[in-house]
Queue: 4 jobs
Job 1
Amino acid sequence: MLRASALAAGLPLALLAGCTVGPDYRAPAVMTGKAPVPPLATQGAAAFEAARPLPAHWWHLYDDPRLDALVDKALVHNTDLRVALATLEQTRAQLREIEVQRTPQTGLTVDPSYAKLSGDARGVGQSIPTTAIYDAAASLSYNLDLFGQLRRSVEAGRADVGAAQAALDLARVNVAGQTASAYASVCSAGLQIAVTQRSIAVARHALDVTQRRFDAGIAGANDVVRARTLLRQTEAGLPGLDAARQAALFTLATLTGDTPEAFPAAVATCATPPLVRQPIPVGDGAALLARRPDVRQAERSLAAAVATIGVSTAGLYPSVSLGGSFGTTATALGHVAQSRAFHWSVGPLITWHVPNLSAARAQIAGSNAAARGALARFDGTVLTALRESDTALVRLARQMDNERALGAARDDAATAQRNVERLYAGGVGEFLDTLDAERTLIQSENSLAQATAQVSQDQVSLFMTLGGGWEEAPAVEGIALDGVEQGK
């Protein structure tokens, strides 16, 4: 380590040669529009509109006030959002700590003591008696940051804040989507329960008809047993559906910051899954990457990693600070203001870890490797965003086709069941035909309800992969510690 006396003569040259070492960050081409982004896989489907951007509050497309209220509540009170907010505030505080290092640093020390000093250490050939010592000093220093170590640190810190903000926005996307998904699960379970109850009514009616025919000596005992079996099999589906609805209600309550038992009672009766039946605005691929918080988070993490290379590179060069101190040291309290007690100093402090720079070079190599890893993660995040969106679009389009086909099949099954039931009630049809028609109708009703529930979930999944929901979000409820005022 070399101090000021060794390199003071070279200080003016160092001041003139000051620069910011390390590579300057350039955003990836896909984020600046310099590289083309593949179009989304809408494939001209009538269910999507690529020309319209996804709205910020996409859940308003459902036109469901209950869902709007639940998402708005979750975006304020969700615990995951509170954690993400606290992380962002911590990162901002760390940035302020770094920025302060670029300003003049001051210090004040007051050190009264009672001690026995060494005479040899003071150059006195005799013992120094025990005495009181009053020592006070004020200091001022400023790091010239000739090679940009602090500037790169601030650059990395600001990128870290951007990544933390993106993480909060990503949490908002997930919370809005999870809330809508839980609500859809509640309503879908309600729909399937209603369908099952209608199927139970159909099966019970078939059993009643068969029992009357048996009592009249027209039908056999096996016909009654088969009809009763169908009824019991249909009834067996209710407990599982009710449990699924309760689980979704509990999930919905915790997502909105409540205890599981505090779920909204009005939602428990929902039997119509939220569905967007008009074409869904999805935008294009470039808008997708600009909107998705995970892509922005990966880009900001890459910027921080590149800036850290400069921080490490500055370790190859000397650190120069200008500073001074002023103080007083006396053995009697009345002497602290006398001129003989005063002492001061001013000058540069140059610190340079030479000739062994192996540690600095190792840090540079590590920072370069970390930056390459951050670039790979960014590329992977972009590819994942495109894959997830394309997959969600294709899956939803095909599931909507499936729902339409199952709807037509249900209508046909209902027509067949009514025809066979009339024939059987009139004593013309066969019982096995009636039983088969009843089973077909029940299966068709259940399949259609499941398909509708899946369409509802797939729509929510699409909205989540499109990355919307963080724009214009309400402020998250802060975390208040006992006796500590929470800053906003």
Note: Residues 1-17 have pLDDT under 50 and may be disordered.
Job 2
Amino acid sequence: MADLHESAALESALDAPMSAFAQVIFGHMARADQRRWAEVYLRGLLTTRGRKSVRRIAATVSRSPTAAMSLQQFVNASPWEWAPTRRELTRLAERGMNPRAWTIGNAILPKRGDYSCGVHRRFVPAMGRSINCQVGTGIFVASDDMAIPVDWRLLLPEEWTEDPGKRLRARIPEALGCRPMWAQVLNLVDTLASRTTRPRVPVVADMSECPEAEAFLHGLSRRGHQFVVAVRPALQVVGRAAESHRVVRGASLGRVQRMATARDVVRRPGARQWLAAGEGRHPQVQFLSRPVGLPGVGHTYRIFSEWYSEDAPSPRVWITNLVDHHIDHLMALTRLHAGTLAALVSLERDFGLVDFEGRSFPGWHHHMTLTSAAYAYSRLSRSAGAGGEWLDLSTCVSV
């Protein structure tokens, strides 16, 4: 990184708000060269047009012939921790917006070859075909206006966790094994709960393609989280309206739960209700709602779904433990998931989420952290732009 002194013009090219932002989220880095390249990479993600490869970023922000090599080294090999940056992103996101939920989003990152950490063959329903890809799961701090990614996990199939050679080449931590998707998401929720300085908000997630969503729901319930989660229509639930009946089993009385799928329960007669007209919403929207239980769990939940017509495609079925909340509030929380999907599209299209060329586990996390930081700066500064200053970052610097 000897060319840092040759690129002194970079510092003057960075505007003051961006430099202040970089100081806050990268200030934990031990070395000055790490902090400098983090800011350079951040600016490159924000200003490079088209594909955000390391080479194109370097050409945008520096005239040094070795800048690309230095940036590649910084992202892939430099030993900086990403957790402190994500902690600061959480703090700034919560300070710069009015969080209404923690939302979950999955990023499908297509890859050529088999050497990038975690890459595997996977059927992607949105594409209708199987592709080579990495799967990243992110947790977002979401408001009515935006969703900011603040933490990520990389799905590691057994072919990666059980192969010592692959683990060594990709620098996968020794203690990290193969975890199902629901466990990855629950770990993200646990981590964010340990970092937030605000009251907890509901968890909103789409687990409709997860065959073990029940384990996720049980985990959230045990931790005392409020949640609104999309589940597969075939999820087995206990209908609370006619929940069970008593039968004699030998000398004792037992209870037999009447099991049904979420789809069947929510479509039973009497489940359909009108949703009062609201701003920006068609007055004829209806919803389906039923109280239910889950097998082996004593809590009461509510499943609900929007309803259009008999011949319309089946909408998502959601389950929540916010049983006393108005359906209008629940529907508003589900719409935050759509905002998270829009944020993922922007991260992929405008901030280089899918453009990372490195192969290591730390490199992937470094890239996702830097991409999230660029997106957060763009959204938060744009949000405050009409009102003047971005944020009073002098009050945010860690001590």
Note: DSSP finds 13 helices and 14 strands in the chain.
Job 3
Amino acid sequence: MIETKNHLHRYFFLFAIGFVAITLLELAFRQVAQLDSSPSPLLFPAMTIFLLVFHIMVAGFMLMKYFCDKKHLYLVAIACAFAGSAIMMLGTLNSFPAWFICHSTTVANYNDAIIFFTFRNMMMAMLFTTSIVLFHQQKWAARGAWFHTMVVSGIILFTLMMLLLAYLYSSFNPTLDISLVDNKTHAFTSLWNHFFSWLLIALWTMTLLLLLRITQLRSFFWFSGGFFCICYIFTMLFLLSDRNSDGLAWYQARFFETTSTLFIIFTLLYDIFNLYRDSQDKYLHSYQNSIRDPLTRLHNRSYFYDTLVRQLAEASPLKPVSIIVSDLDRFKRINDTYGHLQGDKVIQFVASVLQHVIRLDDVAARIGGEEFALLLNNTTAEDAQHVAERIRLTIAGHDATSSQQQLPESITLSLGVYTATSPELTAEACVERADKAMYQAKETGRNRVVVWKE
């Protein structure tokens, strides 16, 4: 029931957006048309060139997406729809033979233009329907390479057949003839008004209904596809409202075609942006996993040493680098008495204390089982000792109750501190000195801080 309501909401949103967009586009077109009631004959070829370029862009996007994941067979049908449409628009441009020399006196072949327009719409509607069916049956892609090749070949052959039919029925071929526009009067014939126009409306309507039924507008891509179908239905209706092929309706139809294609391009750009953002998120997530300890989410040993090497290169008396190495006292007894799961909780509790103590440019790392290290940038030995003492007191001051059962009993830390004031020593040597100071703290009674002294 909830899913059905979601479908209805998406359908309502699509038609509401379509109504608002078409109304605004209609008003915008009427405002522009009022500026000049007799547009230049070169305007239509110019709009066709823009639409041709946009369709090539969409076809290219679809092919690139298909080659990235060949399981999405439905993308081939959409790519062929837009690629075939772009090729047919070359025939439309050829119907205006003087557009490329900016000359407007040559009579245009409006019948050829409407023939290419008709076959282009039939081809696109049928290929859109094919893509929707392939999207619904995506499991077909798993049937093997032979089936994949058969489907792709069938789509390409159908596209080529429609291109050939458009060519044969145009004035390029004298054996076949169809009259949709009278080139002398520029009036649409009854064959267009009473058959082909309604056929195209029916094809786009069936495509839209199938799209709504199968995809249920679950993605923004299919939402743009639904808007595309609506625009083409209204394109047909606009042409029906005009009796002449050189009237404003012809320009209005091309204007709506261009707008709906732009909407699909913006959808594809949005899809590319989402893919880029997802890849960035995955990269950052992968990078963080590579430098973090999985149990505590502190930095790992490798990151700690890499950072220490960089900071030691700039170490000086004015910019000291301090290292604190700490180890849980009698941690083996915790594991033996309470179990390793409880031991992990103890380690996580200590890690959270260390994380809250350090500054943003410091590094807290887990470098061993129950051994931790802090890297304090621009921190003197005295200040590092104060930090270590604060950590020791904080850990020792907690028990099972104050730690919300993360600690089974009170625990303590032994800590060693070393401060480098020059880049002479290696990172390993600096950590070794802090480690020796930590072991000295253990040997002298545990639960204390010892600073390395030469």
Note: The domain at 301-451 is CATH 3.30.70.270 (Alpha-Beta Plaits).
Job 4
Amino acid sequence: MSNRAKIESLLAMANSAAQEAMALYEKAGGDVPSLDSTGPHPLDDAIDTVALKSAIRTLEGACGQICTTLAPPSHTAINLVQVYDYACVRVVLRENITNILIDYPNGIHVNELSKIIKVDSKKLARVMRLLSTRGCFREVDTDVFANNRLSLILHSENPVRHMVSLHVEACAKGAGVFYETLKEPEHAYSYDPAHAPVMYAIKPQGIEGTFFDWMRLDDSRRVSYHRSMRGLNGIMGSLAVLTNFPFEKYSTVVDVGGGIGAFSLPLAKTHKNVKITIHDLPEALVQARDIWAKDCPEAVQEGRVEFAELNFFEQVPVKGKDIYYVGHRQLRNIIHDWPDNEAALILRNVRQALGPNSRVLVHDYVLRQLSRKQAEVEASTLGAVVAPEPLLPNFGVGNMRSYQQDMTMLILHNAKERTLQDSLELATAAGLKLEKVWDLAEACVLEFMAA
């Protein structure tokens, strides 16, 4: 295939994916959203967005590959680093600008906004204009800004806002010293969670231990962190597991490291046939009980949920249940929070609880291979999805968040996201065998049985 033919093929993929996405929006709500949309689309809150995320994965991957191929290298290189979106979003979050704009549906002049938040109006205008250019906020008239569908995500009551805050605060601190930790003798070759870059960054403040130790030092930061984990439902489309995995065939589910119930609460509402056991540390279960009493009291009253203390490094979960969902407050697995030794220990403890027909579901990002040969082997033998040529086999930037998330794990926990091969090696060491890969377009669910 000639280089021009590759671009033409990518253009066709992009067009087809965009048409599919528009059709899904129209089917769900009657219209396609725009940058000027001032409220959420019905599809935004859908439980199962796998079809939409699959279309966007191809659309982003094809468009990104076209731009990188056709643009001068210097153009693309500077675009990799000249990124200040996070700094501007931090201003918006710290000053609750989205909340303020709720009272000004037709927009507010930046001079008036600056008086409310006590930030220089000329600097503030530059922040707002950059974000509006990104499609976050609208400049409805010269220096007059209003909310839109995207900026509403940053409202203080939206859990996704708390995940955004985690990145512009904690992750930004760790990213700023990442290179230094690669050279500093104590940190350079260590995978100790206490040596994560973010902990290196805040050590001058006298703070030691791990990221989770740091979270526990401040109640407001801890609460925001828990809320951010619930926000990942929307970011990842994680709740699609509830409609794509056949939970209706099973009667018992153990949520290992379940926290406040980001996975198990929706499970209880969607599959009332299932009895749920939530395992976590005592302090997490205190908050979980309160949330369940408010959000799903019928499950508590009917005995469809029980709470049991568990340290997953030291204890074996309740034995003989159907499904063991290895989850965390993030509605994804706890495995990515830990280096290989600790991760294997968690899985070995889960393995000891399995009955002959039990399943272990590990829900997380799976890093895709850029080697088409390896990707096609994984596709043919394990059911992993590989992108068609000439798109990069891992969908390119259409799957970029998984690689960015890998860096997030490194910066916050000195841990990592794993390739499918990494996960297989870890599972084998714990006495598990892979049965199936459930591709949910962003994350995957890896289904294991006892080996």
Note: The chain has a mean pLDDT of 92.
